[in-house]
């Protein structure tokens, strides 16, 4: 993921996109990297249903969004309304 961020900066991008499935520790680590390089961090919700689809013990996407903001993500792809 660090190579992706370095490449994005090299080609002039100001934003890096990551996926939710990479895990919370990795997300926070790349968030620090993005801050150090003056880049924005965009989170795609790929894998969200793994956490949210279970009605009895799932995690609501709103909670995941709050966790991601606390981890350093700048904006989140929330998907389409179906």
Automatic annotation (TrEMBL):
One of its GO terms (molecular function) is magnesium ion binding. It holds the Pfam family RuBisCO_large. InterPro entries: RuBisCO, RuBisCO_lsu_C, RuBisCO_lsu_C_sf. The keyword Chloroplast applies. Keywords: Chloroplast, Membrane, Plastid, Transmembrane, Transmembrane helix. Residues 1-81 form the Ribulose bisphosphate carboxylase large subunit C-terminal domain. The chain crosses the membrane at residues 12-34. This is Ribulose-1,5-bisphosphate carboxylase/oxygenase large subunit. It comes from Actinoptychus octonarius. The gene is rbcL.
């Amino acid at each position: 993921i660090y190579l992706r961020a370095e490449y994005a900066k090299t080609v002039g991008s100001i934003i890096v996109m990551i996926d939710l499935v990479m895990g919370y520790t990795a997300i926070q680590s790349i968030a620090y990297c993005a801050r150090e390089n003056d880049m924005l961090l965009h989170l795609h919700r790929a894998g969200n249903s793994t956490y949210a689809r279970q009605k009895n013990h799932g995690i609501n996407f709103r909670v995941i969004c709050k966790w991601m903001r606390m981890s350093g993500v700048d904006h989140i792809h929330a998907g389409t309304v179906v």
